[in-house]
């Protein structure tokens, strides 16, 4: 059974491993292969160690963990966010959401989004947004959860120009409703 909980400092290496695997999978053919190959779990683990401890602007990191094959539970996905980094689009922002390929289509992403939405509402955010690379197939996941496109812009990732879109939930309760738990034994309409 997959569990969702607030990340702890000891999760940083697992979060970094998910980040690298998810980027190499999701952004293959979108970002340069050389850039994806050079992603460093060690550097990212240091970054996420700091992010887990940083509570400024209501920042939080949540993890999805699977039962261990041996030892501690394995981090199989994570989400992070807090008050929006850019004012004017929404009050809260889901900054990251990544799930290992083998754990997609199991409700991890939906449950991580719910944890973030509940957190954002708890810190006083009445709306939420997420930036997604336009070529990333996961944009359909966010749209399925009711995210409406609010903005498009060109950014640079490793020197490469790419389009990103901002998806928006206002009020935030629309995101909470879209990610509501499904009673056991019932399937969501989308499977």
Structure summarized in a few sentences:
This protein has 191 residues and is of the alpha+beta class. It has six helices and seven strands; from the N terminus they run βαααβββαβαββα.
What would you say this structure looks like, in words?
The chain contains 6 helices and 7 strands; from the N terminus they run E-H-H-H-E-E-E-H-E-H-E-E-H. The protein is α+β, with helices and mostly antiparallel strands. A 7-stranded mixed beta sheet has the order 1-2-3-4-5-7-6, with helices on both faces. Strand 2 and strand 3 (74-83) form a beta hairpin. Helix 1 crosses helix 3 (41-53). It starts with a strand and ends in a 13-residue tail after the last helix.
Q: Which terms summarize this structure?
A:
single chain; alpha+beta; seven-stranded mixed beta sheet
Give the averaged pLDDT, no decimals.
93
Distance between the termini: 18 Å
Largest sheet report: 7 strands, mixed
Percent of residues in beta strands? 25-35%
Strand line-up across the major sheet: 1-2-3-4-5-7-6
Q: What's the order of the H and E elements?
A: EHHHEEEHEHEEH
The count of DSSP E runs of length 2 or more, i.e. the number of strands, is 7
Please compute the radius of gyration using only Cα atoms. Answer: 16 Å
Shape: globular
Helix content: 25-40%
Report the oligomer. Answer: single chain
Unreliable stretches (pLDDT < 50, length at least 5) are none
Put simply, the count of helices is: 6
What structural class do the secondary elements suggest? alpha+beta
Helices, strands, pairings?
Blueprint: E1 3-6, H1 12-26, H2 33-37, H3 41-53, E2 60-66, E3 74-83, E4 92-99, H4 108-122, E5 128-133, H5 139-144, E6 148-157, E7 160-169, H6 173-178
């Amino acid at each position: 059974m997959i569990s969702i909980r607030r990340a702890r400092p000891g999760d940083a290496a697992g979060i970094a491993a998910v980040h690298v695997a998810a980027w190499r999978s999701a952004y293959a053919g979108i970002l340069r292969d050389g850039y994806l190959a050079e992603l460093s779990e060690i550097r990212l683990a240091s970054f996420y160690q700091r992010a887990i401890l940083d509570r400024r602007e209501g920042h939080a990191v949540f993890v999805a963990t699977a039962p261990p094959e041996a030892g501690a539970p394995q981090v199989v996905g994570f989400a992070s966010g807090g008050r929006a980094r850019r004012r004017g689009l929404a009050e809260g922002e889901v900054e990251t959401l990544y799930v290992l390929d083998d754990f997609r289509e199991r409700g991890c992403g939906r449950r991580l989004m719910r944890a973030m939405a509940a957190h954002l509402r708890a810190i006083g955010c009445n709306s939420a947004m997420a930036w997604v690379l336009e070529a990333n197939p996961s944009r359909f996941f966010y749209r399925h959860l009711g995210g409406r496109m609010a903005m498009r812009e060109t950014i640079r990732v490793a020197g490469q120009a790419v389009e990103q879109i901002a998806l928006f939930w206002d009020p935030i309760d629309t995101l909470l409703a879209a990610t509501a738990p499904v009673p056991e034994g019932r399937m969501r309409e989308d499977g």
